[in-house]
C-alpha cells in the first residue's frame, strides 16, 4: 500500500470516528475495549477510503433519488399532506451468520406459536384458555380481539401471513423481543429499497462481503398468498393487494408490493361482493378474486360488520371470507395476539403449544391489573417504560427516566383509571450503532424488525428494517417518531472466513472513491 | 385491468397532452406578439383562452386580457384546474394511483418533471424567460412520452394512455383551428406561421407545401394530414387503433363505432369542399364528436361493471340461493 494512501485512509477513519464515544452502551461495531468486532472489519476498511464529506454527499444523492422515485411516506400536518423520504443512514448494520441463525430459529418458533394461538382462539377449542394459560377476560378485553373472526377459516392456519417482530439488544448484546406486529406490519419496502440504494451509492463497500439478498421478498410473499388461497380457486389464484388509497402514508409500500408481485393494487371501491363471491371491476367486467392481501385495518374492512362509516372497505367481504370463498391476509382479529399485555404471555404460549423453551426472551414486563405488580410499578414509575397496550408506532409511550414530574403524574392517573390498558417494562439499554451525524459518526440506538412469512413453511427474510433513533439519547426508534433506517446485512454462512483476507484487498487498485453512480 | 386504473392512465395521457399543448400555444402567442398593436394583442390572448376553452371562466375573474394575466392564469394559477402546473400535478396524481402499472423510468420521469415545476419560481420564469419555461414543459412532456413508448408493454394500460393522449390532442388541434381559421387570409403570413409553429408543424408543412400560404393548404395539413402526428386525422387514427386493440375479439364497441365514423368522415373529406362550406360548423361537429367518444369510453370501460344494491346482497351463506 503506498504510504500516502495509507495515511489518507487512517486520517479518514480518524476523522469519521473523531470523539466516538461508546457511552457505556453495547455497541454493534466496537467491543467494550474499543476493538472493531471482526464481522465489521471489511466494512470499516472499505469506509476508510471515504472522507466524511464523501459520505455526506452520497447521503444527499440517496435522498434526491428517493424523492424523484417517490419512495416516500406522507405526513399529514393540518390537512396538508407532505411527502417525506425515510432517511437512510449510510452505515449498514451487520449481523453475522450464527447470530442470524439464532434470531431466525427464535422467530420461527414465536410465529408458529402465535399462529397456533390465533387458530385455537378463532376456529379451535380455545384450549389455551381452558387450560389456564391465558385468562379469558384478558383476551376478550383486547382491542384487537374480534368476535366477527370466529369461525373464519384460514388455510394452513397461516393467520400471521406477514409478521414483523421488533427485536432489540440489551447491554449484554442479548436479542430480546420488544413487540410483535401481526396486523399490517410495514417497512419491508424500505428493506429492499435501502439495499438497492446502498449498492448504488456505496458500491465499493460491498467488496469482500457475502451478504444474503433480500430482493426475493415479493416472490416469497406471493407464494405464501397463493398457498392460503381457498382450495376451490385452482392452480393460479387471483391475488390482489388492498390499499386504503393514495392518501395513506404507506401508499408507496402498497404500490411496491403489488408491483413486486405483479398483481393488481385495488381499493375498496374496485371490489364488489355478490353471493359471497368477491370480484374486482375491470375494463372487461367483473373478475373473481381469491386472496386479498389487505393493508387496511380490521375496523375499516367491511362496513356491514365493522365501522359502518368506512368507505375504504368492501360491503359483504367478511361474509365471503366466512363462506370460504376468499382468504383475507393477514387474518381478521390478529390484533389480540400483538396486544402488549398478551405479549407478556407469549413465552407461556410457546411452551404450551410447542413444548419448547422460548429462544428469544421477552423484555421483563409488568401487568398492571395485578395489584402487587401495579404497586411496585407505581413506586418505580420514574425507572420504567409505560406503554399503552393497543398502540403501535411509539405513540403514548412514557419513558420514566426521561419524563417530567407532570408526565409521570398524568401516567399514574391513567394507569389507576384503566390498568388493563397499560403495561410497564424495565428500561432496556438498547444497543447502539455508529450513524452519520452531520460530518462524523455518533452512536445511536437501534432496533431490528425482521419480516416473517407464514404459508405452510415459515420463512424469515434475511435482514429486516434496522431503525435508528436519530435524536441523541432517544430510545424511540419508530419511523412515525422521526427515526431513520439502516440497510441490514445478514452474512452468509462461512462469510466470516473472508474477513481474514481483507488486509490484502485494499491496495489502492480499486476504483476511486468518488465515482458515484447516480441513482436511477 | 382494473377499470379505475384504466381511467387513471387515460387521464394521465390527457393531462400531459394538455400541459404540452398549452405551453406550445402560450409560447408562440407570446413571441409572435412582441411587435404588434395592443388591439391585436388582446385578440390573440382571447383566442388562446378560447382554444383551451377557458375564455368564460377567465372573464368571470374580471382580469384584464394581457400577456401577463393570461399567461399566469394558464401557467400556474392554483384556481385554474387547466393550468400547466395543475395539469402536470394531476397527471402525476393519476399516475401515482396506477404506479404499479408503470415502469420505474416512466414514473420517475413524470415525478421529477412535476417536482421540478413545483420547485421553480414560475412567476419569475414568465417574466424573464418564458421561452425557456415553455421549452422545458414541452421537452419534459416529450421525454415522458418517449420513456413511455420505450418502456411500457403494449398492453391494455398502454392503449388507454395512448387513447387519452390522442383524444386530447385531436380536440386541442381542432379548437386551435376553429379559433384561427377565420383570421387566415392569404396575406396574414404571420398568423399562419404561428399557427403551424404552435403545432410544431412548420417544418413538416414546408416539406409538403413548400412556401405556399394558401389557407386551404394549412387547414388540410392541420386537419387532414395522414403523416403529421399532430393533425386531427392522425391523432384520431392513433386513438382508433388503440380502441381497436381494446375491443375483445374484434367486437364493435360503441366508442369504436363513433370514432370510426368520425375518422372516416375526415379521411374522405376534400379540403376545398370544406373551405367552400361552413368550416366552422364542421370543426364544431368534429370537436363534439371527440367529446362523445371520450364519454362513451368512460361508459364502456371505466364504469361498465354492474352496480350492486346493498340491500339486495345476500349476507349469509345459502341465503337467497344466489344466481
Tell me about this structure:
The complex is a heterodimer of chains A (520) and B (323). Chain A has 520 residues and is of the alpha+beta class. Chain A has 3 domains: 1-211 and 340-363 and 428-520, no CATH class; 231-325, Rossmann fold; 366-421, Dna Ligase, domain 1 (2-Layer Sandwich). Chain A contains 15 helices and 22 strands. A 5-stranded mixed beta sheet of chain A has the order 3-22-21-18-17. In chain A, strands 5-4-19-20 form a 4-stranded antiparallel beta sheet, sandwiched between helices. In chain A, helix 4 crosses helix 12 and helix 8 packs across helix 9. The longest helix of chain A is centred in the first third of the chain and has 26 residues, at 97-122. Mean pLDDT of chain A is 88; it is low at 497-520. Chain B is an all-alpha fold and 323 residues long. The model of chain B is unreliable at 305-323 (pLDDT under 50). In chain B, helix 13 (232-246) packs antiparallel against helix 14. Chain B has 16 helices and no strands. Chain B folds into 2 domains: 1-152, no CATH class; 168-301, no CATH class. Classes of the chains: A alpha+beta (520), B mainly alpha (323). Chains A and B meet through helix 3, helix 9, strand 7, strand 8 and strand 9 of A and helix 1, helix 5 and helix 6 of B.
In quaternary terms, these chains amount to heterodimer
Largest protein-protein interface: A-B, 36 and 37 residues
Kindly provide the radius of gyration of chain A, computed on alpha-carbon positions and rounded to a whole number of angstroms: 24 Å
- Alpha-beta classification of chain B: mainly alpha
Task: Please summarize what this structure is.
Chain A has 520 residues and is α+β, with helices and mostly antiparallel strands. Chain A is built from 15 helices and 22 strands. Chain B is mostly helical and 323 residues long.
